[in-house]
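Objective 1b. Sequence-to-structure analysis of Cysteine-rich receptor-like protein kinase 10.
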Amino acid sequence: MNPKISDFGMAKFFKKDELEANTNRIVGTYGYVPPEYVKKGIYSTKYDVYSFGVLLLQIISGKRNSSLYGCHENLNFLEYAYELWKLGRGAEFFDASLDDSSSSCKLITCMQLALLCVQENPADRPSMVEVFTILKNKNSVVISVPKQPAYSTTRDERKDIGRKKVFSVNDASITQVEPR
């Protein structure tokens, strides 16, 4: 249980009234970096929320976020947590040493909160103040229902309707008719 996460230190780069900023290069620990930072170099107060969500999922599961899971070992860590939560089988995700009859509901709440923290869209993530409020007042706060987490390779069929098909094996090559 020795986390090696440096991402939380990004918060110190914010000025008092700043909500987001751009960086010139990507820094952070793989698996804890949110998609908006990887894609656009934008870090915000929601960066730390994302990293916290991954860490919370690791704590309650005792699993690494760098492995594949599921019956076919085809789901990343976040997808696996989401699928089990969505199917109402969150107890399968928990570290056996944490689970007992009195803490089961608390762990489900933590799992749901962590899944909210790792949402693709930063606007869908709670603030750290909201995270603290939910953890402190477990019974009196209504928690939103999480959507598919970030970095998910499995998408709902509804989201794929109307999308253009990409005919590239690795999405790295694009043919342009016009010269550059």
